[in-house]
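so my prof wants the structure for this chain in the tokens format not the other one, which i didnt know existed until like an hour ago. anyway here's the sequence
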Amino acid sequence: MEKRLLNYIAYMDELCEKKLSEDEREAALKDLLVNIGFFQHERLVHLIVTILFAVLMMFSLFCVCFFESIGYFVLAIAVLVLLVPYIRHYYILENGVQKLYKHYDKLKQ
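here's what i got, hopefully its the right format
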């Protein structure tokens, strides 16, 4: 999804630089709104997953602090290894959707 988003942003960068007719601009706006919807849905799903992993991380750290078991320590490390890429991916999705909002505003003018 990251590659698709970055490719679409590059496409919109090129499109916004061109002088478009009214029909082309309307078609680009419709296409942009559909893609924004797709990326917003993806962003919401990854937000939920990221929050779930953050809560699981806090729970596993709590268990490491109070129960001092090697199993909880391994769980905390495993969750951390998964949490970092989820945060990165959500960051990319969030910033990408914000860029698409700016492109929408440019095309709307």
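also thought this was worth mentioning. The chain has a mean pLDDT of 93.
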